[in-house]
Automatic annotation (TrEMBL):
Record-given protein name: Endonuclease VII domain-containing protein
Family matches, as InterPro entries: Endonuclease_7, Endonuclease_7_sf, His-Me_finger_sf
Keywords linked to the UniProt accession: Endonuclease, Hydrolase, Nuclease
Entry keyword annotation includes Nucleotide-binding: no
Source species of the chain: Streptomyces fuscus
Signal sequence segment: none
GO molecular function, one term: endonuclease activity
Pfam families the record matches: Endonuclease_7
């Protein structure tokens, strides 16, 4: 070290201000041996040697950040906040996080990949299998077994859910719509006979 506010980088051998070094409490002076630039180069070399692809270094204008997932530079308002990050922003933009969140939801809740869901929709010709009118967008599953049954429109999916996933209730609803009166008959106090 050749001065109070200066330190020599042990990699590039240049004297740099102390602010050019990251902190390291294990070191005698409390700073890393390599300056930040040399540390970044060294990190990239180590990652490449391990067969990993290090993230590209992209400079963005003030108030903007580069998204690693979509490869676009976006303004800060298109990012979620992250207090633990050095810049206070998440590692991916809001749009990319939403896409990843939907994929994670499909896998976690239904055990499906997006490709498997898209194949199901294609096998249904893109339509809800109940109403045959609206686009199929909601994965439907049995709440008892967890088995995926198909992809429905919002209205049909919520309708069978509100009928409690009960095939008998759906049959009674269909009979009612067809004009068949479905009324239980009182045969004794508190005892009703259901129509067949």
């Amino acid at each position: 070290m050749s001065g109070e506010g200066v330190k020599r980088c042990s990699r590039c051998k240049q004297h740099r201000p102390r602010a050019a070094f990251a902190s390291n409490r294990a070191m005698k002076d409390g700073l890393q041996a390599y300056c930040r630039e040399c540390s970044a180069v060294y990190y990239r070399q180590r990652q490449e040697a391990r067969g990993k692809k290090p993230r590209p270094r992209v400079t963005a204008p003030e108030g903007h950040k580069y998204c690693q997932r979509c490869g676009e530079i976006k303004p800060h308002f298109e990012w979620d906040r992250n207090k633990t990050a050095s810049d206070g922003l998440s590692t991916a933009c809001k749009a990319c996080r939403a896409i990843a969140g939907r994929a994670h939801h499909l896998k976690r809740n239904y055990g499906l990949t997006e490709a498997e869901r898209d194949a199901m929709i294609a096998s249904q010709m893109g339509l809800c299998v109940i109403c045959l009118k609206a686009p199929a967008v909601h994965v439907d599953h049995c709440h008892k077994t967890g088995r995926v049954r198909g992809v429905l429109c919002f209205n049909c999916n919520s309708a069978i859910g509100k009928l409690g996933d009960d095939p008998d209730a759906v049959r009674r609803a269909a009979a009612y719509l067809e004009g068949i009166a479905w009324k239980p008959t009182l045969v004794a106090p508190g005892v009703y006979q259901l129509p067949s």
